Amino acid sequence: MMVFERRLLLRDRGTGVLEKLWLIPWSFVLLLCAVAAVGYVALYSAGGGAPEPYASRHALRFGFGLVMMLSIAMIDIRLIARLSWLGYLAGVGLLVLVALHGQVGKGAQRWIELGPIQLQPSELMKIMLVLALAHWFHRASWERAGNPLFLLPPILATLIPVGLILKQPNLGTGLITLMIGGAVFWAAGVRWWKFAILIGAAAVIAPIAYEHLHDYQRARINTFLDPESDPLGAGYNIIQSKIALGSGGIWGKGFLQGTQGHLNFLPEKQTDFIFTMLAEEFGLVGAMTTLVLLSLVVFFALAVALRCRHQYGRLVALGLGVNYFMYVFVNIAMVTGSIPVGGVPLPLISHGGSAMLTSMLGFGLLMSVHVHRDAEFGAARE
């Protein structure tokens, strides 16, 4: 009864820090701390059994992100909704800035320097796109969501950042951004047959698009289909990853005892292949425990979407949940050889500032939806 009364007070007033603190899902905060702790252990091992250079930075970034997340959770979700398109325009502006003056690394132009921070705007853009699309659809009726003219602006809003991300080039993140946008469209009530037409068109275009990919992108696809064709070149990463996964067995080789990682056979062990290092040292048990923790984060996002009373919050929670799921799915599928290697980190576990920053930003928005799930947004537009 007391919790219900506090929720009514929060809905009517939209303020009250103590009321909002009461509604924060502290069990979810503890879950995120557990996932980050797994990352600290893995990065401590990746650093050769020392907190530097990875684990200590990971802890500092998570600590900063935790404060940022709780601060965002206090912001009224209706204010966030009003700023959605401003955030989208800022994200697009950062992508344009990357195209003009971005840092080049590993053959791609994906980063910009903002003082002491090196930011990858494509990661931030995925969250800004979710907010913008949720704002567009949140008061649209079922009939209006099926109107092709009504769908044209959000389609363009999705394709613009996707095109800028593909130009970097960053095929993996571009496709993930497109799928996140598609998930929000589907949740907003866009008819399934429209998706069927787009998927059919993509299947027809795929062979043509393959011919226009960069050489390294085609090599990744060819290596995925036959990694043994170039075991010391393009296929080296995935072969070493599979060796490490298999050698871990049920219980693993033990903390700091992984040979593939510590003898430097495993590439990018602190970022893309951090899950492989965990599986080698802690085995199937450790890998499955990590997957359970990551899955619980996704389930929380879906639960927030189901319990939210307003469409904006439902779409934001679903979009952020899909974003996090795609991070996890692509990374795990990549290191196990199920899809081509694409350079996607494992959130809250891999080393990297941009991924940590955007993940905690997304969790803060998700918690704001949870705290303000009873906020009044008004009736749907006809």
| Biggest sheet layout | 3 strands, antiparallel
**What class, by secondary structure content?**
mainly alpha
* Number of beta strands: 3
Shape: globular
Number of folding domains? 1
Unreliable residue stretches: 1-14
What does the average pLDDT come to? Answer: 84
* Helix segment tally: 17
Distance, first to last CA: 36 Å
Question: What order do the helices and strands follow?
Answer: HHHHHHEEEHHHHHHHHHHH
Polypeptide structure, described:
- The structure is a single chain.
- The protein has 382 residues and is mainly α.
- It has one domain (2-192, 239-371).
- The chain contains 17 helices and three strands.
- Strands 1-2-3 form a three-stranded antiparallel beta sheet, with helices on one face.
- Strand 1 (103-105) and strand 2 (108-114) form a beta hairpin.
Give a short overview.
The protein is mainly alpha-helical and 382 residues long. The chain is built from 17 helices and 3 strands.
